[in-house]
Structures are given as structure tokens and as C-alpha cells.
User: Fold these one by one.
Assistant:
Number 1:
Amino acid sequence: MLVVLSGPSGAGKGTICRELLSQLPEIRYSVSVTTRSPRAGEKDGVDYYFVSRKEFEEMVARGAFLEWAQVYDHFYGTPREKVEEYLASGYDVLLEIDTQGASQVKERFPAGVFIFVCPPSLQELAVRIAGRGTESPEDMEIRLRWAENELKDVSSYDYVVVNDVVKDAVEKIKSILTAEKCRCARVMQER
Ligand code: 5GP
């Protein structure tokens, strides 16, 4: 099962992904490729594969991405090969990508599970991004404006989870995944 998690920067997707990965042994995280610089504490190959703009463009040209998009001033993409490899090995795959990427994935994997993670409010989002202390005031402004835009795409997702308390949001997502696995169509397909 392909699981796509989107939502504005500061919605808490990163924390939720880490929790899901530690609690669900059958799921694998798809590490994205990005042209943005690493933040303090981020590791190449773990948080992202950090590449130059030229390397990214080469990957686009050779069809290495399942999807890719420009988010803020940077490029982000999901390496196709790893996702296909995990799915072929029977794992669920978790993608943490923006709404543009999610709509590309939906075209290729309509049976994927698309979950939008929302902050309780835009004010709370601003507080969280500021509290993270990783963005300059200009970047913060960009992310907040982008967030307002992204919230408009909620209706194209299968589920919306408001991340007020992380533990509760994680439980909700785990319940969604459990229910999705019991869908008749999925069970019949696996037989
Ligand atoms: P950040 O720079 O805060 O790590 O991520 C910025 C945005 O890029 C987030 O909304 C995140 O979901 C999105 N993103 C991360 N990886 C990918 C990817 O591989 N593809 C797409 N389309 N978006 C991504």
C-alpha cells in the first residue's frame, strides 16, 4: 500500500512520520531528493538526499522520479526505483510530499491512501514554524503563504487529520491504515 502524507510545513508531518515508522514494522519511508540545503541535524540519505540543481535536473531527465515538484524555491522529488522495490517486496511505503507531488502520485497509484495533515489553525502553524527556529523570517513568511494555498487542496485527499496532539494524530492514521487494509477491493486483489 502506498501512503501519501501531505500538509503545510509546520503541520507536524515529520514527527508523525517518525512515529509511524517506529510503530509499524511493515512500512518503509521513501527518502526524497531535494535541492535545498540540509538543516542543522539533517543527514544525507536519512532525511533527504541533498543534491545540486544540476544533479536534480539529470534525475528528471532520466525519469528517476515517481513525482517531483518545485516547493518554495527548491525542488523535491520521490525516487521511483526505491518505492517500486519496497512495494514489490511487500512493504507499505510512506511518502511525505507536497500537494503537487501527491496529485502526480494519484494518477499513477489511484489505490494509494492520501492523507492530509492539518494544523489546528494558521496561527498555531506560525507558532510551530517559529518555534522550530530553522527558517529565516522571509522563509517563514513564504511557508505561511504557501500553507494557505495548500489548505485549498484538502478536498482531493481521502482523509484529513488535524494534528493537535501528535499521539492522537498518529493513532488516527494507524486506524486509517488498518481500515484501508480491510477494504474488500484490496483484500480480493491480494488473493
Ligand atoms: P521541507 O523543506 O520543510 O523539508 O519540505 C518542504 C515541503 O516539501 C513539504 O511540504 C514536504 O512535504 C515537501 N516535500 C518533501 N519531499 C518531497 C518530494 O519528494 N516531493 C514533493 N513533491 N514534495 C516533497
Note: The chain has a mean pLDDT of 93.
Number 2:
Amino acid sequence: MNAVSPPASRRHDSAQARWERLPVIRTGEDYIASLKGRGTRLFLFGELIDEPADHPMIRPSINALRATYDLAIEDPELATAHSPLIDAPVNRFLHMPTGPHDLVMKNRMQRRLGQITGTCFQRCTGLDTLSVLHSITWDIDAKHGTGYHRRYLEFLKEAQRRNVLIAAGMTDPKGDRSKRPAEQADPDMFLHITDRNEDGVFVRGVKAHMTGGWNQHWICVMPTMNLGEDDRDYAVVGMIPGDAEGITYIYGRQASDTRSMEGGDMDQGNAQYGGQEVWVYFDDVFIPHEHLFMDGEHEFAQEMVARFTAYHRASYVCKTGLGDVMVGAAATIADYNGVDKVSHIKDKLVEMVHLNETIFSSGIASSHEAKPLDSGIYMNDGMLANVCKHNVTRFPYEIARLAQDLAGGIVATMPSEKDLENEEAGAIIRRFLKGRDDIPTEDRMRILRLIENMTLGRNAVGYLTESMHGAGSPQAQRIQILRGMDVEHKKWHARKLAGIEQA
Ligand code: SF4
């Protein structure tokens, strides 16, 4: 395909010019239109793709984000909120939490979107980034007398007015893990400032496996870990338009992703929706001062990461929506097989629901326990958020195992949709790949393909691997739980009850 590069005029364009390229988005259709003709450089299978929004492998991930716009129209109570900042209703993904209720509603919306899409709908990282920036810019200003919070509020107002999407560019490739950013042999192993002029700064580096990175209008680049004095150039937070000059995207593969290019819709399992991770290379990309929210204040990097993970680890209740789909698929195949009344089948479904609701309970409890920060924004409880995410690193695997148990080995050995369509092979398949007489073979195959999709195929990325590593791998949560568990206080209670004299 022919590739179009962004015009060089975008190299140093102003903050205002960057906003003026973006429309006001109201509907899912508006959103899809907003992605077209951007002239981005995106590699997929070794080729630059001219119009990624129309590519059959990419489109399902765009549909998943589109669902966040559609839901706001279908169920405004759930998916919109009143913004005091612009005194108007906004998509809940752009609303800053002003109390525990906002965070609880966010979790309910996330579960619903998981049920609708059966995958990662990619918009929560942007919300959680905006939420963190509210308090971090406030705190940096309080210490250094900078003007980041005002800039941030101006950005947020415009983002709310235009109803745009923001991707979180947090994960650097990291290179030699024993070395700090400034010590790496390749200085670009962590994204950093390479140059500056009177209007802004230039950054170079890569942000890895960025969720929905191409599908969004802005990318917020930010540090991935704590930084020291020598790492000042790496302490940078800024908003960059997805179509800025100097950005190259490389699309991440997912299991069975080319099934979307084979024609038909059955073998995909979930033909409508998918997730997306991309590698994004920033080659001296410009950020105007108005869109810069940290510039060298390295001592705030660790706190920024900690607050982001506190928000985002509770956002992982999204996986309970996918868990609802898994339970539904397992119950449906049991039904189609004529074994839905068998006691051990019902017991396995109960186990799946128990695990799924355990995830939800820790996430929603974290939101109910939210407390205000100095900037006035609310943040959910960090300990419970880490417990939620830690549950997510384990329970979906057990839920998926039980779904495969109920599905039977056929989930991984079934003939293709094209064989089903073939006159001779199709007749054999329709006759013998049957369960209950009154259930068409094709329906049985479709529900099995959905289970395959979510446990082995394309959306197993969203349901399993992302559950393991997204928002930090399991050990990252254990470290946070260790830091917050206050074992001395627990020992004091134990000694008191045991009648041991307290020091
Ligand atoms: Fe949202 Fe879940 Fe995807 Fe994170 S993993 S962006 S919380 S849907």
C-alpha cells in the first residue's frame, strides 16, 4: 500500500494548530471519521499502511474504542458525567473524579464495556493518565512555582469539548535492567528530551506495547519509573498528537490475528472487537510548552507512576465484563451439549462467577474508599486497587481453564468456516458436529469459537496476557502490597490479644 507521511509543517506546529486539526466528536461515526486521512506512518507486516482505520486486522480494535462513544449516547447516566470545568456533560472517560461515586460509576461503565466488547476497549489508560496529571501538576507547582496545573486544565477543557481520546505512553523498552536511564549504552532506551527551543522541547525514544496507541488522538508520554538527578532529561510529561511529525508506529501481532483477513466472520470468534498494542517511535518529536506538564522535576516521577497504577489497577474491573462473557459462553455450550443441569457443570459455573465477583469486589471497594488529594481530585484506595489487579493476574486464567473444560477438546480442533460452507465437507460437519438436536451446528461452532478467541486466540491477549502484565506484572503489585501492609500494626493487635505486654 502507498504510505503518506505527515507534512513537515507539523514538526514545530503550535498547541493551537494541534487542536485545530481535531474535530468535535459526538458519535461513533464521527470518531471513525476522525482517524482517517491523518497521514500517520504505521508498519504492519513490513509495509507502511496507507489508511489503517480501514485495515481488517486493525478495525476491530477501533470498533472497541468506538463502543465508548456509542455507550455514552445509549446510556448517558452510566457513560457521561457533568464536567464542572466546562459546565457541560462529557464522556465519563474525560471526567475527573470529584468523589467516590465517580470512581464507582467508572468501574460499572468499565464492566459494561467489557461485556459489550469482550476485549480491551483501550480508553481507560487515558482517563487514568488525566486523573493523575490533575494532582501531580498541582503538587509540582506547589513545590517549584511552575504553571503546569493551569496548562493541564486548559488541555483538559479542550479535550472535553472535542471529546477526544488520549493514549498513555508509559512503558519504555528499558534496555539493561540493572542500569538507570542515564546509564544506558543507548541513551534513547528511555524516552527523553533531546533538544529545546523557545517554544518547547523535542523528545526521542520508544513507548512499547501502547494500548490502543494508534487509535487515539493524543499520546501522553510520561516516565515509567523513579528517576534520579542524572535522569532529569527523562523526567518529561507531555501531550503529543498521534499524527505528529516524527512518529512511527509498529503494529503488535496477536494470536490468530490474520483470521480477520481470511473472509467470513465465524473463525474469528469475535469478529467485531479486538484490542491493540503498538510500538511507537518518537524521533525528535516536538512538544510545545502549553502541552508540557513535567520538565525535569525527576523527584515526582515515582509518585506519578504510583498514582497512575493505583487508578489503573482498579480499572482492571474491566476484566469482569469479559468474565461475564466467559461465564455466558461456558453456560451456553453446556446448554447446547444438553448437560446444563448436571451438578458438576453448575458447580464449575458457580466457581467462575465466584472468581469473577471477587475481582469486582476488590475494585469497587477501592473506589468506594477513595480519598481527596490536595488538588481536589479523588483517588481510589491503593491497597485495594493492588489486590484487585493481583486477583486479575490469576483468576481469569482459572475462569478460562474452566471454560475450556466445559467446552471440551473441540474448542481447539474444529474445522474451518470454509469447510462448513463446502458442500461435501459441510454436510459431514453439520451432521456430526452437533450437540442437542434443536441447536444448529453453526451456533454450536460459533460459541466454541468465542471461547477459543478469549482463551487461546486474539482476545486472549485482552483477557489473559494483559491481565497478567498490563498496569504492572504480578510482582509489581506484591511490592505495593508489601509497602502498604503495615505488619507492625497487625503484630501489635496480635500481641495485645495474646496478653503480651506492649513496648
Ligand atoms: Fe481499560 Fe481494561 Fe483495557 Fe486497561 S485493560 S485500557 S482498564 S479495558
Note: The first strand starts at residue 41 and ends at 44.
